[in-house]
Fold each of these.
Amino acid sequence: MNDEKRTTLRLPEDLHRWLADQARAAHRSVNAEIVHRLEGERAAAVADGESPSR
């Protein structure tokens, strides 16, 4: 990713804990896990015609 944007994200503690566990199991950082999941959701939405691709 060459054009990265920094953002602050507030999560409930239990959701962060779950996400950190998922990231650890996949050998990714929490940030990489969030990006991975969002990219998957975006691809699914585009495939379903729910949103324009960018």
Amino acid sequence: MFQFNRNYFILTILLFLLEIVIALFVHDNFIRPYFGDFLVVMLLYCFLKSFLNVSVWVAASFVLLFSFAIETAQYFNMVEKLGLEHYKIAKVVLGNSFAWMDLLAYVLGILAVISIEKFTQKQENKKT
């Protein structure tokens, strides 16, 4: 089950750097709020697959459920309820506002991951 995968780890780093660039330099009404959420599930998926040898469906399902749980925590203002509102890192990681569109961005991001994985697996099967 535990197995380091260099390719997923490299993708994790690249996606993380892209998320940082978006957070620091993009201040719009689409890329930062929606595309950032679209990418964050890809980041989490790649991070998970960097260390765990689980199926695409298991990893994608876990990441989607985790993302929905974080969004639900935002709906219930968990950052404030936990007394973490003065910690910027808590507000960045957990977020501070619920949005239905974020859930859609997560689903679209996971669908993109699954599609990319299926395409990649087809390409690998053609080589053998």
